[in-house]
Amino acid sequence: MTPVLLCVVFATATVPAGGDAPGQYAVGISRLDLRDASRGNRRLTCDVWYPVRRTAGDASTGTKRNVPCAEGSFPLIIFSHGAGATRQQSTYLTEHWASHGYVVVAPDHQFNTVFDIRGDQGIQSGIDRPQDCSFVLDRMLERNGNAADRLYQHIDPQRIGATGHSFGGYTVMVLAGATVDAQEARKMFGKELERGDFSHPDPRIKGVIAYAPIGPPLLSPKSLAEIKIPVMVFGGTHDLIMPLEKQQVPLFENLGGPAFLATVNGGSHFCFNNAAFTNLARMVRKDKMLEEHVDRAAADAIVKGFSLAFLNRYVAGEESQSIPASDSSVLSLRTRNIVAAPVAE
């Protein structure tokens, strides 16, 4: 019996069955205020979403604050927001994953949120963000071992995934093992990386989803080829900030492990945010960068479904979970380095 390595292009794709529907759990939410003393008491305010047992007759879809976690040990997912955004930017995803049995944590990256962004922190944020995520994961695992905490023994430390949008997509690619090319960083930010090429891999990460991330040459192609954990890259054909063909396609084509490129046809850079946020921004400011040529309800459903299928398969370890391909005008899917089931020689 020999495994078969596949490099397949799927023209179109549909939502995995039930993947966009709420899961079996209600969703709890709590706030976590952290300070990293090793980095100047850096502030990291986090939201944590987690599964909650549904009581009889409870069909609510909203979050419940500071309630007990459901019984069981659940995978842990970290979500990193985009530059100038917040930890709440994509709750349509974070809450969805929690309802399907994930603990999800999203930090506000200090000096890179809508409330405190500083133009002089661009290159420093590129260094701080991956370290933020590792620090937050450390604290979440500490909670898992604290008998007084509501998440005590509810996190499986062997099943951890990282997800992020835009600058957050960059962040999780660095966690996966991508190296930032110092010369390219200088061209982009006008400053030198003090320590040369920058890397911050976190070996606890089992799989990564990057929504509209930057790609090479900022992320070294050689380092991308050395990433062996599964990665799903999302992009939009109407992204005027991180254009699909210049950023996500080269990123996908350089990855050395199981790789997926999910393209939202007509989607903008912001089609992975909560639709309400994007619509509000569009009302306040008419900007071509905010234009979308896709049905957001349909796009949100398919992004939720494919994201969940990926996490189920590659982070939660559900080997029976597959990521299918079928007919849809919303999303196109390409794959690389996927090992099929063994076949007889």
Topology:
Blueprint: E1 2-6, E2 9-13, E3 26-36, E4 42-52, E5 63-65, E6 74-80, H1 91-99, E7 103-107, H2 122-144, E8 155-165, H3 167-176, H4 182-189, E9 205-211, H5 221-225, E10 231-236, H6 248-254, E11 259-264, H7 275-284, H8 296-314, E12 331-336, E13 338-343
Parallel strand pairs: 3-5, 6-7, 6-8, 8-9, 9-10, 10-11
Antiparallel strand pairs: 1-13, 2-12, 3-4, 4-7, 11-12
Helix pairs in contact: 1-8, 2-3
Give the tags:
345 residues; alpha/beta; Rossmann fold; eleven-stranded mixed beta sheet; two-stranded antiparallel sheet; 8 helices; disordered N terminus; disordered C terminus
Structural features, described:
The protein has helices at residues 91-99, 122-144, 167-176, 182-189, 221-225, 248-254, 275-284, 296-314; strands spanning 2-6, 9-13, 26-36, 42-52, 63-65, 74-80, 103-107, 155-165, 205-211, 231-236, 259-264, 331-336, 338-343. The chain is an alpha/beta fold. It has a single domain, classed as Rossmann fold. The strands form two sheets. An eleven-stranded mixed β-sheet has the order 2-12-11-10-9-8-6-7-4-3-5, sandwiched between helices. It is globular and about 55 Å long.
For CATH, the homologous superfamily is named as Alpha/Beta hydrolase fold, catalytic domain
Q: What's the CATH class, please?
A: Alpha Beta
Structural class: alpha/beta
The CATH architecture: 3-Layer(aba) Sandwich
What is the strand content? 25-35%
Radius of gyration: 19 Å
Q: Provide the number of structural domains.
A: 1
Quote the average pLDDT. 90
- Going across the biggest sheet, name each strand in turn: 2-12-11-10-9-8-6-7-4-3-5
